[in-house]
Amino acid sequence: MEGGSSRLTRLLPWSWPVLLTVLITAPLLAPGYVVGYDMVFVPDLTLRLDLFGVTTALPRAVPSDVLVAVLDEVAGGQALNKLVLIAIPLLSGIGMTALWRALGLGGPLAGAAATALYVWNPFVAERYHLGAWALLLGYAALPWLVRSALRLRQGQGLPGFLLASAACALTAAGGITGLLVGAAVLLWPRQAQLPEYEGARYWRWVKYALGGAVVLNLPWLVAGLARTAAATSDPAAVPAFAARDEGYGGTLPTLLTLGGVWNADVVPASRGDLVPLVLGFLMLVAAVAGVVIWWRWDRAVRALVVVALLAVVVAMAGVVAPGAMAWIVREVPGGGLFRDGQRYLAPLVLLESVGFGAAMAAVLRVLPVKWIVGATAALVPIAALPSLAGGDGLKAAQYPADWAEARRVLANESGPGEFIPWPYESYRAPGWNQRRPVLDPMPRYFSKPSVVPDELIVDGHRLAGEDPRATAIATALREAVRDGTDPTAVLKQQGVAWLVVDREAGGPSPRNFTPQLAEVFSGPTVSVYRLPGTPAEQGARPWAVVLVITAWTLAAAVLAAATASAASALVRVRSKL
Question: What is the residue range of 281's domain?
Fold first, then answer.
């Protein structure tokens, strides 16, 4: 009987993340695709060279799109969509549970509180609703990264560190966050001075770890550097993407309570209500107290405190120094990565989650009714954000049936060139998706490459894009709608051979301006047209292809080595059991 009770005690902490995952994702597992804002999964994303970032556009979906294109060949796009939705809260929760055990700050009840806050908080809810799935997978990897970095400080854990770094590197923002967190923990001074030989070996492993992490980030980094156009952005994006007050007494308190996303439409409805507001500040106070306790116990926490403070500074930059940020975005290549500073808040969430658990552990050590207090603490994050249950309004939808036929027809079209979607806008709210906004799925759904529109409309203001080809096309199409001019010459100059028309989106037909279009497919919701003549060949950049493929090869080699090493270690552990 005692053995069964002991087994149950060991299993409960690991069951809690599973339960939280079920509460969030169960309704989303219905047949169909959960798409919204930047979360776009299609039945089969074709693996193409442009997915690697060899285009004139900034590599915003590098390397995540390549990963999807490879994996959906195995599982299918719909299954992969569901797996990602499940993996975000599940890996976050299990990772925090594992980190909590490694830190030794308290028992499983306090650990359940830390896990609940890391899985169930406004940052996750807002980014989940915004469709930032690749960023959130990096967020889910962060506890694993810290745990592996702490193990590396003891001379082990390199494969785990590299695998977690690879998950962070699915996006540029996640990769930057992972590099900062990993470097801070590994480079922070140790409590005890190591013997010379041990110290030299340790620093050698640190070089391997950080060097490998940098290599894993090369796909998006090299793709960005290999562009011929300047990788700068519209300075008007700074106020558009600045963090916002959600009713918590200012932007800073909102960020400290782990909210503040730029898009008001994805903020949970309960944010700012009295009960969530009170609970949010109670958790913040408890987290600060817990960090103080942790600070006295382990110097490594100070590295995380520094990175968390830096995350808050980046998140606040667009609010307190909009002029300076606008200059950076306009003049510094890659500066646009920091226009949405709130997305770098993950280290603060991790710090507050562990701090919240540490505070609860201190309380449980002095209170007699441990189970009641511990269970209540674990439920507080849920009570502060009840709308996250069920995915916060996300629902499954089906692509129109005629899209598959249009895809087949377009794939069979011969000749050079790319297609553009019509209307030429980044986002739309299609009827088949219950009018929920979504990044236009057509560039991913259809197998041929496309010139993707990259202008954004935020609060009624149009923000300029970074791709010169897309800008030329958008300008020509706007002039056609306004003045009735024929944009055919500009489209052909930019390499466009086909137009794929979203008939549900409304607006004028492209044939009003280009009557010589040849219709190659017409369905209830989508039509495909071919432009006359041959599109201009776009300037080949073989040097860019070589650089990008080299970066991918190096990153793949590091990832394969880390995976093989981790698998070998797992086999050795099992053989000893």
Answer: 2-388
